[in-house]
Design goal:
Two copies of one chain form a homodimer. With 246 residues, the first copy, chain A, is of the alpha+beta class. Chain A has a domain at 3-169: NADH Oxidase. The first copy, chain A, is built from ten helices and five strands, in the order H-H-E-H-E-H-H-E-H-E-H-E-H-H-H. Chain A has helices at 3-9, 24-35, 54-63, 84-92, 103-126, 141-147, 178-181, 192-209, 218-226, 234-240, and strands at 46-51, 75-82, 130-134, 154-163, 182-184. Chain A is globular. Strand 5 of chain A pairs parallel with strand 1 (46-51) of chain B, so a sheet runs across the interface.
Chain lengths: 246, 246
């Protein structure tokens, strides 16, 4: 198609990197790319913490479930939903700060951060770097906030580890068939036949990748992963940070 | 740099399109690109509604504040945080559905949807199409859900209008200076000198783009836009949809 679409479609998550820092030039390109993303009403409601300090990476890695690829990597970025700058500005301008605690503004900050992160991910992959999102930092947001010295009106959302890949994935992981994700004009109930076919496809995919050790359909994976509550401290943390309150 | 980074850095929002539908091939590329994004634990917790029906577009446009570029466009996509498929699977597998109502799973769905959307945006721009995010659909999520026939465990997040641009923007809108977005290892408090410089830069930007009609700094824009609460029905809507409850 073109280099952009090829890069996007060629994505796979990398979980083993050379222990080699990114150059300053690459870092600058990645941050600039993140910032070029759309932002709701130009609020730019996110921050990016670039964690080069190995001790801090180690601490975050323990929280995320001891993932070595958050320590041995080119750079570990933590994306933060951030309304703290706006809070400072509103106070300075003598404006009411209560809007910052609404679900709407919380949503704006999360979406702004995610759009920026995905721009960074695509830019990184175009530079032959590999990436992996690290949702595991949400295992203990309170602790992450403490380590990164995050102020009120912020929340750490996820990490993005970016580095020189030490592995290459050969088979792309098949996504849901288009008809299960894409709806024409109005929402369509789940097509169970298409889902069953997809379940078989995913079983086959894991079978091939693990030499028969893992045989699990997508539905089984979902039932296993989403069948239990986790990270129930998020709500209290958001309250403490004055976010998502009304 | 390369075509990917050039595309990302060349982004600007388009608000006037030729009234010409996207081809099936382009649509397929955009959807495939969206689906190639990272997804938390492979849950793929989003749906995309492609609204080609002009009457439905008109209805959504009224909600979003009468934006003609949601009607006259190549395609209007609505990105939906979607745990309804997972609900159906959990019920079928006899698993507990309560985890779907946690803040954590809500966050996963929002981030999944945003990453997919940004992939679509970049892919579209690489095909010489223009894009604009439409947060305005959150002016009345209840009504949008009714129009699009959304089931429980879903929420419409934003629109993405994609089409053949009828205008071209010459000056890129300057983002916050890197030091205000990017932090080294730990969060840094706002640098007020850098902020003042940026405020001047944005004033100048608006002055040039509006031939002197609009003179507003970023801080002033933030104080004006974030100084009042809006969309206070989101919380009740999420509750009704069994999302973000604990």
């Amino acid at each position: 198609m073109n280099q952009v679409v090829d890069t996007i479609l060629g994505h796979y998550s990398v979980r083993k990197f050379a222990d080699k820092a990114l150059t300053e030039e690459t870092l600058a390109t990645l941050i600039k790319s993140a910032q070029a993303a759309s932002t709701s009403s130009f609020v730019q409601a996110y921050s990016i913490i670039g964690v080069s300090d190995k001790q801090i990476r180690e601490k975050l890695s323990v929280i995320a479930g001891n993932q070595p690829y958050t320590v041995e990597t080119g750079q570990l970025f933590i994306f933060v939903a951030d309304l703290a700058r706006h809070h400072a500005i509103l106070e300075k301008e003598g404006s009411d700060v209560s809007a910052l605690s609404t679900s709407e503004k919380w949503l704006v900050a999360v979406i702004d951060a995610a759009l920026a992160a995905q721009n960074m991910a695509i830019a990184a992959e175009s530079l032959d770097l590999g990436i992996c999102y690290i949702g595991g930092i949400r295992n203990d947001v309170e602790k992450v906030a403490e380590i990164l010295e995050l102020p009120p009106y912020t929340m750490p959302l996820f990490g993005l580890t970016v580095g020189h890949p030490d592995t290459k994935q050969e088979i792309a992981k098949p996504r849901l068939p288009q008809e299960l994700i894409y709806h024409q004009n109005t929402y369509q109930q789940i097509n169970t036949v298409a889902l069953e076919e997809y379940d078989d496809q995913i079983k086959q995919y894991y079978h091939e990748r693990t030499a028969g050790k893992r045989v699990e359909s997508w539905s089984e994976q979902i039932a296993r992963g989403l069948g239990r509550e986790n990270r129930l401290d998020l709500k209290a943390f958001l309250e403490k940070q004055h976010l998502n309150q009304k």
